[in-house]
């Protein structure tokens, strides 16, 4: 865990219902929550300077931020199955 702009950055492994874990980083503002949240899931690395600075900036403004990688991407466990992501969109209203 490190501190950037008075926020905490914590490396996390988020458990899924099938036991696989998604790699990610959690950014939290100082103080005690609850806070509104921002969730981002991506295939690319979460370690880039721009990605980390944006998350830290959002956290410094009072948002909890969770960045995770898709299954099978980077350090996440499991296998990437792209059609599952597309099926999620089909279930949304609008």
What does this structure look like?
The model has no long low-confidence stretch (mean pLDDT 86). The chain has a single domain, classed as Alpha/Beta hydrolase fold, catalytic domain (Rossmann fold), CATH 3.40.50.1820. It has a five-stranded mixed sheet. The chain has two helices and five strands, in the order E-E-E-E-H-E-H. With 94 residues, the chain is α+β, with helices and mostly antiparallel strands.
Topology:
Blueprint: E1 2-4, E2 7-15, E3 21-29, E4 37-42, H1 49-60, E5 64-69, H2 82-90
Parallel strand pairs: 4-5
Antiparallel strand pairs: 1-2, 2-3, 3-5
As for the CATH topology, it is Rossmann fold
The secondary-structure element order is EEEEHEH
CATH class, please? Answer: Alpha Beta
CATH architecture: 3-Layer(aba) Sandwich
Largest beta sheet: strand ordering: 1-2-3-5-4
Specify the helix fraction band.
10-25%
Low-confidence stretches: none
Please give the number of β-strands: 5
Largest sheet, strands/sense/barrel:
5 strands, mixed
Structure classification? alpha+beta
Radius of gyration: 14 Å
Q: Note the beta-strand portion.
A: 35-45%
Number of domains: 1
Helical region count?
2
Q: State the distance separating the first and last CA atoms.
A: 40 Å
> What would you give as the CATH superfamily?
Alpha/Beta hydrolase fold, catalytic domain
Gross morphology is globular
Overall average residue pLDDT: 86
Provide keyphrases for this structure:
22% helix; globular; 5 strands; alpha+beta; 5-stranded mixed sheet; Rossmann fold; 94 residues
